[in-house]
Give the backbone structure.
Amino acid sequence: MRLFDSHNRHIHKLRLSLLDACNLRCIYCMPQNPQFLNQNELLSRQDIKSLSSILVNLGIDEIRLTGGEPTMRSDFMDIVKDLSLLELKKLAFTTNGLFLKQHLPKLKKTECRNINFSLDSLNEKGFFNMTGSRDFQKVLQAILMTKELGFNVKINTVLMKNMNHHEIKDFVEFSGKYGIEVRFLELMRIGPARNRFEELFISADKIIDTLKNISTLMPIQLPVDSTSFNFKLNNKANIGIIASESKPFCGGCSRLRLSATGKIRPCLMMNQGFSLKNKSTDEIKKILLKTMALKPVDRIYEVLQPMNQIGG
Ligand code: SAM
Ligand code: SF4
């Protein structure tokens, strides 16, 4: 079965949030004093297993686990193992990498081959300023080890004025040296980032100008629903740009989101959705059609909820 929304977009990717809690405090993501959900409010391992299986039968063929920090769940590996048994084209997750090293040997034996890391600085001080953590080296080692073990690794870097924008060249060198794709994200008007948006935002055009001063940019062909556009640079770096604010890609969106509490949501920017918990396959099918009908074509200006609660 294949799912199409009212604008004939093929909806086949699921962002599945495992929890809202996190061991970092990235300044653009988390509120000052975050209140996290109680354990008993989260989808259980069994809920995730059965819901994912139903969604795959209905047309989902890619699942990316996210959060909060997905590796903080004590049953994280069990969930990855459960999902590895499904007929998926791609199983992936997004992580800050802090707890990853311990999982790598077991991950290697699963079907999960794709790991995106969030890394906003390539030095201790910058990392601390962005995340409040002194564990930069630990994260860096986890990223390099993951690459060495043969996983498909990407780095996501939210670029911000006077925070890390001067590190673009360092990331280009890093990408070329280790053969790791680095994607620069525009800051989005989500949660706490809205309050300092004008002060911190750097546009894709500005990023491209800086890149052009470093190298010639050779465009890389990507699928239509890719969130990034990418360039190969002279040093073989693969640099992507995710321009959610200045060049939104909503028209090609192929995603649905399932919150940590089991609410299916049509769009990152819409705090609206329907619970799939304890529903039959038929009921879930109807809910999916209703949810897809709500998917916007144009970019919604902002959303108050912080990213850790939405599942980024
Ligand atoms: N904790 C994991 C991580 O950091 O990779 C997964 C969850 S995190 C919410 C997912 C992604 O959302 C990260 O790459 C983070 O940089 C991004 N993010 C969070 N808030 C954002 C904002 N206001 N604008 C742009 N990206 C944001
Ligand atoms: Fe945590 Fe990821 Fe949000 Fe940073 S971006 S605070 S690592 S959930």
In short: Residues 29 and 139 are 18 Å apart (CA to CA). Residues 10-310 form a domain with the TIM Barrel fold (CATH 3.20.20.70). The chain is about 30% helix and 20% strand. The pocket of iron/sulfur cluster (ligand 2) is lined by residues 22, 24-26, 29-30, 67-69, 96, 118, 307-308 (CB under 6 Å).
